[in-house]
Each structure stands twice: as structure tokens, then as C-alpha cells.
Amino acid sequence: MLILTCPCCGVTGEETEFHPGGEAHLKRFGPGSEDGEFTAYLFDRKNPKGVHFERWRHAFGCGKWFHAARCTATLEVFGTYPAQVSAPPEEIVARIRVRRPGWEMPA
Ligand SMILES: [Zn+2]
């Protein structure tokens, strides 16, 4: 079972209390962008086996969106952080590097 802690209200709960929102830190492209950029924004996802950064919503709690860093293979959660950032916080990246030596931040 995936256990997440909402960084907005501090509640820790099972994944059924939250709602997944897909991959985090996507670069958005809108009107005026190239077709290839817009297509990649809409459809291309990393879907890794291992460390992944995701968007989650505390659906049965405060209702706010946040980001989570977790392992898709083991369900280990490295940390959660507010959705208003464009990259994971350094302390979470450092925690991932301790737990997954050799891991590199995806481009
Ligand atoms: Zn919450």
C-alpha cells in the first residue's frame, strides 16, 4: 500500500485518500508552440520503473495538489512537496541518491 503525507495539511494516509494526477514537472506548451512540442506535452510520459515524480491531490482531505517522489517498483516514498515548485527540493533529491546510488535526475 502506498502511504503519502500531504505537505499542505500534514495528514498521512493511504493512497485511497489521494487522487493521482500524472507526471510532475511537465513543461507546458500552448498556442503558438510547435506541433511537435505540443504533441510531446500532451502524450509523451516517462513511465519509469524506479524513481518517479508525480502529481497527487489530497481528494478526501484539504483538496490541494502536491508533488510526490516515489519508486514505482517498490512504492517507497522519498518525500512530498508543494506543487508550486518547478523542480524537486534538494533534500528529496539527496534522499533519493542515498537510497538509490547511481540514480540521476532525468532531463
Ligand atoms: Zn492535505
UniProtKB/TrEMBL annotation:
TM segment ranges: none
InterPro entries for the chain: SoxD, SoxD_sf
Pfam families tied to this protein: SoxD
Gene3D superfamilies assigned: Folate-binding superfamily
GO molecular function: sarcosine oxidase activity
One Gene Ontology term from the biological process aspect of the record: tetrahydrofolate metabolic process
Native species: Paroceanicella profunda
Name of protein: Sarcosine oxidase subunit delta
Origin: domain of life: Bacteria
